[in-house]
């Protein structure tokens, strides 16, 4: 009960902070003395939502807080927010006008972009690095390093493209493309496109292909990785065709993602839309993801994540995990997914853990999620395994306090719409269902949800009926406080 109360308090606090943030900024009286680069009044200021009149800090989050839950979720098309008015509090660094970028998509502009970032980072003001509309900037693998003296916005109104041929990448730089390291308080925004050019990476023989064999190892770059960067805002952009994950947030605190469009082909391998790991206090809102893997994936060490108004599909749905691989300890808590749409995906909302791990997944709520021809709308799988050689183990990540409320729509009848496969040694406990109505997209109804070692209850009648939940708490986890991480 204490976990649920803490989760509610955290969610209310996050909503209050987002709703009031635009009312708390005062007018900045400090002026910049910037002589190295001219400020261009023609450059577009960062794409941000409108707020009170007066000078404002460019990198601060300026989007509205997510709307209150509605009767049913609707797809939300991402769109960049209106631009801010130009004012003396921002200094603009235009890649074309100030740094001589080619902007033709063929000439290597990596050094230009990195120099512009470093220049803005060394300024103690509010710097905006502008990749102007109508231009394409070829950027090789690079790291944008902080902390910065002031705050930096990287405003993409044109296109950033990666090298398309894997053989042109340095051997030691094939795991990341654009990395932001200790870039506290930064913003990545605009009305432009970031294109990872992933097709040749997906075609590598070491990649998993349906109906084919794989030969590893096979490193491929994450398009945008934020590492040890706090109070980060990403909004308004289109990101496509990443060789692997599109976004990855590692060891960050305070992440705001809003109004993105993320896309790659349905069969592109390992192209998760947004992956969060060892990170806390995350908001992902008003975003559309269509890809070949998880829409949003949540890894170990993640705390306080709110996902609102996200549309997924095709892909693998919204996943917590996989967790506990190779006996590792994994801790995930206070996760809310609300007002989402999941279409033509292998999974809807999923929790997946390996046998032999430890730690816990707790205080998770899936609320008002619309399923459209989803193969496994609701699934907990504590026997996750990618081969046929996984051995049974006597330990597991403890899964408890999971709520499914208002999960409605249609499912692919190749399997049961509800699957709870929980550990023999550490059963799932306090699983609650209400307002669950899942009908076949076509063909005959599969009326037999799968349950194995799962304890919980349905507070309202469900479609199909879930009669396989066990009451109470199993004896071996009566003192479950020792199993939970938080």
Major β-sheet profile: 20 strands, parallel
Helical stretch count? 3
Tell me the number of strands: 31
- Unreliable segments (pLDDT under 50, ≥5 consecutive)? 1-86
What's the mean pLDDT score?
A: 84
User: How much is the radius of gyration in Å?
Assistant: 23 Å
How would you portray this structure in words?
- The protein has 486 residues and is mainly beta.
- It has three helices and 31 strands.
- The strands form two sheets. The chain has a 20-stranded parallel β-sheet that branches.
- The longest helix has 19 residues, at 2-20.
- 50% of the residues are buried.
- The model is unreliable at 1-86 (pLDDT under 50).
Brief digest:
This protein has helices at residues 2-20, 110-122, 199-202; strands spanning 90-94, 104-108, 126-131, 136-138, 142-145, 151-156, 159-161, 176-181, 187-189, 193-195, 222-227, 232-235, 238-240, 247-250, 253-258, 261-263, 274-277, 280-290, 296-298, 302-312, 318-323, 329-343, 347-353, 358-374, 376-381, 398-411, 418-421, 428-434, 437-440, 450-452, 454-458.
Fold blueprint:
Blueprint: H1 2-20, E1 90-94, E2 104-108, H2 110-122, E3 126-131, E4 136-138, E5 142-145, E6 151-156, E7 159-161, E8 176-181, E9 187-189, E10 193-195, H3 199-202, E11 222-227, E12 232-235, E13 238-240, E14 247-250, E15 253-258, E16 261-263, E17 274-277, E18 280-290, E19 296-298, E20 302-312, E21 318-323, E22 329-343, E23 347-353, E24 358-374, E25 376-381, E26 398-411, E27 418-421, E28 428-434, E29 437-440, E30 450-452, E31 454-458
Parallel strand pairs: 1-3, 2-4, 3-6, 4-7, 5-8, 6-9, 7-10, 8-11, 9-12, 10-13, 11-14, 12-15, 13-16, 14-17, 15-18, 16-18, 17-19, 18-20, 19-21, 20-22, 21-23, 22-24, 23-25, 24-26, 25-27, 26-28, 26-29, 27-30, 28-31
